[in-house]
Amino acid sequence: MAQTLSQKVWDRHVVHAADDEPDVLFIDLHLVHEVTSPQAFDGLRLAKRGVRRPDLTLATMDHNVPTTDLTIPVADPISQKQMDVLAENCREFGIRLFPMGHRQQGIVHIIGPEQGLTQPGMTVVCGDSHTSTHGAFGALAFGIGTSEVEHVLATQTLPQRRPGTMAVTVEGELPPGVTAKDVILAIIGRIGTGGGVGNVIEYRGSAIRALSMEGRMTVCNMSIEGGAKAGMIAPDDTTFAYLEGREHAPKGKAWEHALDEWRSLGTDAGAAFDKEVELDAAAIEPHVSWGTNPAQVVPIGATVPSPDDFLEPSARDAAARALSYMGLTAGTAMRDIDVDTVFIGSCTNGRIEDLRAAAAVAEGRRVAGSVRALIVPGSMAVKAQAETEGLDRIFTAAGFEWREAGCSMCLAMNPDKLAPGERAASTSNRNFEGRQGPGGRTHLVSPAVAAATAVAGHFATPGDLD
Amino acid sequence: MEAVRTITGTALPLRRSDVDTDQIIPAEWLKRVERTGFGEGLFDAWRKDPTFPLNGSTYRDASILVAGPNFGTGSSREHAVWALMDYGFRAVVSPRFGDIFRNNSTKAGLVPAQVDDDVVQRLWDAIEADPSIEVTVDVESGRVYCAAIDLDAPFPLDEHTRHRLLEGLDDIGLTLQHADAISAYEARRADWLPTTA
Ligand code: SF4
Questions:
Q1: Could you give the residue ranges of the DSSP H alpha helices within A171-251?
Q2: ipTM for the whole complex
């Protein structure tokens, strides 16, 4: 029977199946970070269980790490303790760890792909919802809770219900200046925060195929913001070219075997999806979020909507609450909204292409006097690459702060935070109330729009600066 | 996990949609390395508003939370479930849940009861009119009851999860019954697949 990409990957990982039971799936790669793992390791100790496959497990520190000077002690002792606990757990259970300051340290979803660990057809899990990022390679990758982290550590498997399938097809060519971030914001704006619930989304169509691997990761990253269990893109030559030669990618004969396997993964002609959505690439504009959930977005040329624009009572209430939290008035042009802070980074947009896009805008310009602008590379490797290319100098000359790698202001667990009432243009993925600091106001944008906004002091596209 | 059969008690109306896990328990609270003590951080930011239903004595003993659609979206943090349970909730009723939150709930013994929008509306109206009315979330029958308003609504629960909740079963123990199948699968995996070594 004709199958979709996600069904094929699923079927190839079923260890045990029985009626009325979830399938037991084998997990090829388990990524671990400091926030969602301590209680899982405690659980193992309590039950006197070990880690079944430390060789398929990798840990990093990302959520808590400071991104300023790494040679001084971490200011927050509780953050330090959480990182110490991870280091102890990794030592005790024999798990490879990239600690703070290590040259391969970085945000968990940046380092997997960058080291070639994320490969097509694999199952990848992590105690983190943005694990969907890895789906850009045609891997089935999804976030899990701490109980499930413990389960994978102990068994290298997970009992899972087979999800539904959803196709999101973007056909045509993106207009100049429209990026992968705008595509995914437009998709979430269309399907809503619950649009993908229970489904694995497969992103398809010529506009998706035309994206680089980095752009594809940006799209898959935010699948969870559309409620989906995972997001996937069929592997193709772009995928293979990205992987070839990376540290953990197969080599020699193994590479050929792998290619044969990977080429068989794409959705078969005639395979049916449970749900289908189509978007016209040519109609997508740069997007900005105005509210407190990621479906509350508009094109940058639009105005702040009014609660009355929404038919459903719950959406109307949500809009009214969001406007009040965000301190916005319906009808205001998005371009007229001033920002205090610009944050460029996160697992959504903290890769080298994102920094190049931002640097192209920043070069020869100045950050507006009233704006604090932070660039936080997604990994130490991204940072090193950017420095080799001289991007750091472009940024600092333009008045941006150049930081160490980590999650940083994406979730404000480290000292990088918004003050109450402060407004940020952010390349991260969540504009929830308080996400970037209690009372902080987040607007989600692409790296290019973020950089242009830093220069203009209000929401702007690079084109507006000319 | 403790077995859970029936939850009967008063309920708290949370008239909001898209209650993400960052609202349920903010990141600042995630630095703890324990599983307990998160109740204090439950809805931390919203509790600063004195009119928020968690404040005051009206709903103090509620064991069932009734919320709008898309409850528990966002971050995978199981701390959200721990916070709700630590505070005293045993079930959440909502028209739609975030997938990971729902999964996390059933692992920890918090019952996610997904019902139609109008069921939530009726419950909200009834509870606000009389906060002392009793609501029941029954795992065995997969139904939400509220006799005071003649409400009897089903919620979906697959047999496996129901069985686990009713018996308080440890998932890992169940999976380890298939240890041979796991070993057999490992033996036939392609040898070029990556390791982190
Ligand atoms: S960058 Fe943000 S979304 Fe990504 S893993 Fe870190 S905290 Fe989570």
A1: 180-191, 206-209, 213-221, 237-243
A2: 0.94
